[in-house]
């Protein structure tokens, strides 16, 4: 049986599924979790490997071609390489990537590569040890740098570094992150701070538009040009500094959203399909395990709920929005 393609009412074709394999994380980053921490779901409420594989198998018949494994911190999940090996073997799946904070990655990089993982995104919001500890509430930047080295050694390509840019927190490191691209093939992606699950005064005061990055390039006398060669660039607007081996990208969902060509759906660790990261819409697909036709129908019904845009800019401007924003934090959804 060949299922119908996943196309929404605005003509956007969806071929990309982001899968959160756990809501747990070994860090507690300031933009992802509240200071008091999170109450994580018990294991029995999270999807099993078999359940994830079943949902992805149906999704692949509907045109899903790309997967990204997220969390929480996905490497907290035991035997993740085995799950990845099963997912990459599903007919129709062409590309499987991982987003990780890197703390557990170095000793696992080789196994993950052997399992079929092709691409790695590593979160690194500061290269300064004390500041990294502050942002992550206790993380060790040396482990992330070791993970970066291991990822290069095993041959992941491309390797991307995700930097959530925050005013007054890490915006004075823009120059250092740009410099990383000069002598390596790394892609550094600056990401705007998003109000996922919270819209506190802290978010608004720390939000910084990514035009700041281009302004820093100009101030440093760096000549740069837009490029399109970064594989799996998704919503990133990519540039390369003249003479650099690597590149940098700007992901600005608040100041310049990319909703018009959104091609992604999300599967949460507790078995919900989410059509949009920001809005509260979600459908419980885990209840349909063992019923592939029902899983297919739930994908279509959920996609029909997807609005045209997410309206994060309205949150920044204190304006009324047309839908209800999610109350789940980023770690509960899978970013």
From TrEMBL:
Annotated S-adenosyl-L-methionine binding sites: 31, 72, 123, 194
Superkingdom to which the source organism belongs: Bacteria
Residues reported in the UniProt entry to bind GTP: 18, 68, 99, 160, 264-266
Residues at which [4Fe-4S] cluster 2 binds: 259, 262, 276
Statement: the UniProt record of this protein carries the keyword Transferase: no
Biological or metabolic pathway of the protein: Cofactor biosynthesis; molybdopterin biosynthesis
Reaction equations catalysed: GTP + AH2 + S-adenosyl-L-methionine = (8S)-3',8-cyclo-7,8-dihydroguanosine 5'-triphosphate + 5'-deoxyadenosine + L-methionine + A + H(+)
Keyword set, alphabetical order: 4Fe-4S, GTP-binding, Iron, Iron-sulfur, Lyase, Metal-binding, Molybdenum cofactor biosynthesis, Nucleotide-binding, S-adenosyl-L-methionine
Region (Disordered): 316-335
Binding-site residues, [4Fe-4S] cluster 1: 25, 29, 32
Reported function: Catalyzes the cyclization of GTP to (8S)-3',8-cyclo-7,8-dihydroguanosine 5'-triphosphate.
Protein name per Swiss-Prot or TrEMBL: GTP 3',8-cyclase
Record organism: Paenibacillus wenxiniae
């Amino acid at each position: 049986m060949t299922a119908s393609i996943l196309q929404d009412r605005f003509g956007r074709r969806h071929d990309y599924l982001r899968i959160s394999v756990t809501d747990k994380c070994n860090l507690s980053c300031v933009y992802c979790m509240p200071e008091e921490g999170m109450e994580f779901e018990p294991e029995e409420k999270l999807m099993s490997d078999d359940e994830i594989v079943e949902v992805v198998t149906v999704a692949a018949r509907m045109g899903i071609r790309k997967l990204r494994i997220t969390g929480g911190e996905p490497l907290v999940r035991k035997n993740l390489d085995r799950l990845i090996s099963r997912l990459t073997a599903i007919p129709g799946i062409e590309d499987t990537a991982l987003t990780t904070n890197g703390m557990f990655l170095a000793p696992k990089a080789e196994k993950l590569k052997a399992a079929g993982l092709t691409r790695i995104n590593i979160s690194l919001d500061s290269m300064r040890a004390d500041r990294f500890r502050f942002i992550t509430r206790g993380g060790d930047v040396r482990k992330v740098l070791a993970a970066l080295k291991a990822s290069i050694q095993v041959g992941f390509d491309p390797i991307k570094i995700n930097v959530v840019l925050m005013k007054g927190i890490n915006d004075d490191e823009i120059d250092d992150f740009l410099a990383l691209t000069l002598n390596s093939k790394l892609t550094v992606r600056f990401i705007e701070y998003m109000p996922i699950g919270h819209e506190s005064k802290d978010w608004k005061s720390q939000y910084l538009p990514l035009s700041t990055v281009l302004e820093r390039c100009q101030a440093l006398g760096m000549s740069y040009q837009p490029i399109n060669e970064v594989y799996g660039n998704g919503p990133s607007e990519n540039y390369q500094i003249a003479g650099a081996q690597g590149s940098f990208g700007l992901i600005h969902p608040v100041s310049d959203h990319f909703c018009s060509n959104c091609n992604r759906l999300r599967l949460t660790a507790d078995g919900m399909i989410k059509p949009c990261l920001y809005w509260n819409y979600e459908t419980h697909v885990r209840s349909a395990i063992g019923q592939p036709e029902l899983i297919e129908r739930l994908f279509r019904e959920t996609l029909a709920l997807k609005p045209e845009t997410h309206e994060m800019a309205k949150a920044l401007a204190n304006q009324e929005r047309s839908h209800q924003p999610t109350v789940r934090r980023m770690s509960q959804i899978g970013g």
